[in-house]
Structures are given as structure tokens and as C-alpha cells.
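Question thread 4412

I'm putting together a teaching handout and wanted feedback from people who do this every day. The idea is simple: show students a protein as raw sequence, then show them the C-alpha cells that encode its fold, then repeat with a second protein so they can compare. Below is the first pair exactly as I plan to print it.
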Amino acid sequence: AFGFGIGMPAALAGFFGGSLIGYGVAHVIGGDRGYKLINEHPKWRAVRDSLVGGEVGAGFFRTTMIVALLRMPPNSPFALTNLVMAAARVPRMPFALGTLIGMTPRTAAAVYIATLVKGGLSKDTIREATPWWMVVAGIVAAFAVLGVVGWIATQAMKRVTNGARPKPAPDPVP
């Protein structure tokens, strides 16, 4: 309806704002329960620490990029991702920046397709307007994210199962 120039920033602002609201609500409602539950299980804690850092400020760039990776695939569960990241106490700044970076390509693709449709929203019109490479790119992105996150989690699990003791978990960030 608004074209790409206005539609893209508007849609991205809506997703970004929605993610921050979802994160905040999950943070308030969940309190420290999720954080404490993760810390009770050394393997879970090792995976969380490897993905998003176990300390405040630890690995800002790494945490931001992991959040961006999780947000990039078009089939990533938006609300569930907000909940999990809030429960794991992903710091707010890497969460926000990673969300913005990761949501940009998929939002751009959706807005671009919408601007191509122009007429009615029939399945055939949408199918014709969607370039084949976007479908392939979405599938490849999903598998790439699963591969990277899975590899990091596997390495963390190996460290724990090989006897490396994770350091005690810090208190949750208020």
C-alpha cells in the first residue's frame, strides 16, 4: 500500500517495536524463573553462555550476531524467540540491535513482494511475484542458522561433558 520506500521502514519499525514489547513483557512476567531454570542445568547453561554470553557485556558482538541469525529466516517463530531470549537474559542492546539486523532482510523481501503484487492478493499473483531465488534464499538461511547455532551448542555440550566446569552463573540483570 505504501510502496517500498515507506513500507519497508514502517514494517521494520513495527517488528522492532513489537519485539521490544514482547521482550519486556516476557522479562517482567517471567522474572528470574527462566534464568534460574537454565542455571540449574549445567548443559543448558553452557549452551546459553556459548550463544549469548553468561556475563553482562560478555561478547556483545557475538550475542548481537547470534540474535541476528535467529531473526533472519522467514520462518523463525517471532513471539517464541522474544520469550526465550528474555528468559535467557540476553542483554537488551544486543537483542535490539540483533533483531534490527536480522529482521531487515526478511522484512525487505516481504515488502518487495508486496509491492510487486499491486493487484489482488490471490495465491497465483503472490506466487508469480515471488522470485524463485527468494524462496531458495529463505531455505538456505534457515539451514545456515540451524547449522551455526547447532555447532555452537554442540561445542558447548562437548566442553561440559568432557569435564570442563562452567563458572558459576552471575546474578540476573535487573
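The second pair follows. I'd like the answer to focus on this one:
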Amino acid sequence: MFFVGDTHGNIDAIKFNIITKKITNQDIIHVGDFGVGFMSEKNQSTVNDKLNEFLKERDITLHVFRGNHDNPKYFNGDFIFSNLKFHKDYTVLEIEGKKILGIGGAISIDRTSRWNYENAWWSEETFYLDEEFLTNVRDIDILVTHTAPTECPPTNTDGFPPIVMQFAHRDMGLLNDLRIEREELSRALFLLLENNSLTHHFYGHFHRHYQSKVGDLIHMCLDIDEFFELKDYRDYEEVLNQMYSK
């Protein structure tokens, strides 16, 4: 399976990666900021239909979770096509024998500059913490979020980067809201780890590539348009075991 970072409406980048990497018969999980909802419903429907057909021709299913640059209405469960699927928050996918939990949403640092424009900012863009679900869910192997817990880079221990501070000058509550949101992601991760043995966590949002490891859990932030293949070596390991056990 593949995981892909923010694409912000760049469908050509998705197609380019699929063609150049010769991806077929695969599931691709998008970590958010797909860029859906920034055009008229008619045009968006045309774009979705064409991408769905492109994916179908290659036997690829693209699973998309919600970012802050996505219209939340596309993630209510009504936009599930044959090969392009916009999933609700807290959807659990079962792919290649793994259970993958997706939780979307994040705060836009440019939210104030988008408030006055139709189809540009949505109050429901933020991450929502469902403690009851996280307490009761079991057997999750992989977590997908859009933003990240405080334990993951960027840690902001030396302050926020200049681009965030630039928007914070016009949005007095931004920095505090960002801190609270990442603390809530940490709470979500803590609850998951209580009853689940996670191996990987993928996220985007920060337009950088980061990789860190806490205990046995690998956290990976995917850059813009970045594709990462998480390979299943189970069959390969079985072949090796047969070869060297003789």
C-alpha cells in the first residue's frame, strides 16, 4: 500500500506519481489536504469522475481523509465512488491484513484570510477528539491523521516557524488554538496506545518530510505530493525462511 501527502488539488501530481512509479492493483491512502471543494460542485464532480476512471483502469483505490483544505461536506459518507473514496473521520480500513484508522482535520494557519471568501474556509475544518471511540477501538495497526501530536516533529519547542507567526499577527487566538489541537492529538494517540499495538503513524499538513520513532511506533510526516510505499514483506520472509531452512 502507498501513503501520499498533501496534494492541494494537484490531480496531475497524483497521476504522474502513479504512472511513473507504475502503480497498479494497490490501495493508496491520502493523509488530507486533497483539495476537494474549492470549485463549483459541477466542476468538482467532473474532476472526481475523471480521477475515479483513471484509478479504475489501474485497479487502484484511493482512500482520502480530511485535511483543513478540504470541504468537510465531502467527508460525510456520501462521496464513496468505486475507486475514489472520501472517508468519514474515525473510519477503519482493512488493507493487506492491516487495520488503518483515519482521523482528519486541522486548523488552517491562514484561516482569517479565508473567512470572507465563499468555499474557502469551513468552521468544521478542525480535528475532533472522540475519546469514546478511541477508548473502545481495538486491533489498529496504522494511524493516519492530518496534523500531528506534540510528540512528533515539528515540535515547536523553540517557537513557531516564521510563516505561522506571520498569520498569528492577524489572528490573536491562532497560536493557542494550534497548541490545544496538537495536545488533543496527543490525547488521541495516548488512548489508542492503551489498547492497540500501532506500528506506523502517517500525517501531512506541515509540508515537510519528517521521520521519528517513539518506542516501536514510527511517525512519518509526508511532504507535498510525496508517495511512500509501505511494503508487506510477509510473503518475501516466508520465501527466505524456506530457502534457508533447507
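Top answer:
Good format. For the second protein you could add a caption like this: The first strand starts at residue 2 and ends at 4. The mean pLDDT is 94.
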